From TrEMBL:
It holds the Pfam family Maf. Transmembrane segments: none annotated. GO terms for cellular component: cytoplasm. InterPro entries: ITPase-like_fam, Maf-like. Its cofactor is a divalent metal cation. This is Nucleoside triphosphate pyrophosphatase. GO terms for molecular function: nucleoside triphosphate diphosphatase activity. It is found in: Cytoplasm. It comes from the Bacteria. It is an enzyme of class 3 (hydrolase).
Length: 199
């Protein structure tokens, strides 16, 4: 019996990564109160890694309740810098403030993926990538934001490395696919092992 794959995410880049890998899947965006989960976990002193994992699981579980036999892929990213978490920018001014904070420094990006079936998690992966941003001039920063807004409003940290955001970095230590939103190789490996995709 061939099981279907559903991506529980509205992210176009995540969908594109799976499409390019030749995976047949559908998309179902879950309705999850991310800020409520994040705030509650921060209040309890949870780590950015665990918050990313919990958010990914909440999304996958939500869709899995509606489509129990399918393999549901839930994902989330959390950016940690200097003991705090940076979320998606709410305005272009917010994006400028985030990028000025990160300029010339190293931060961590946690990318979580959880696969659910029958309403429960059956596989998970959290990738930890260290991102070092080059010192950025105010003039370039302003022109970068004006050219790339509102696209970067969907990205924590206000950058997209798959686009012009790659120019902001001097070094990236870790999985490039994870930076783009999906630990793709590990997901493909698991789906192949389970016989969900051909290998």
């Amino acid at each position: 019996m061939q099981h279907s794959i559903i991506l529980a995410s509205g992210s176009s880049i995540r969908a594109e990564l799976l499409q390019r890998a030749g995976v047949s899947f559908s998309v179902m965006k879950p309705r999850v109160d991310e800020e409520m989960i994040k705030s509650a976990m921060l209040a309890e002193g949870e780590s950015p890694r665990n918050i990313a994992d919990a958010l990914a699981q909440a999304k996958a579980e939500k869709v899995s309740m509606k489509e129990p036999s399918a393999f549901i892929i839930g994902c989330d990213q959390v950016l940690a810098f200097d003991g705090r978490i940076l979320s998606k920018p709410e305005s272009s001014d917010d994006a400028g403030a985030q990028l000025r904070t990160l300029s010339g420094k190293t931060h961590e990006l946690f990318t979580a993926a959880v696969i659910c079936q029958d309403g429960r998690a059956i596989w998970r992966k959290v990738s930890d990538v260290r991102m070092t941003m080059r010192p950025i001039s105010d003039s370039y920063l302003d022109s970068y934001i004006s050219r790339n807004w509102p696209e970067i409003s969907h990205a924590c940290g206000s950058y997209q490395v798959e686009a012009e955001g790659s120019r902001l970095f001097s070094k990236i230590d870790g999985d490039h696919f994870a930076v783009m939103g999906l630990p793709l190789l590990e997901i493909l490996d698991y789906l192949a092992l389970r016989g969900v995709i051909d290998s």
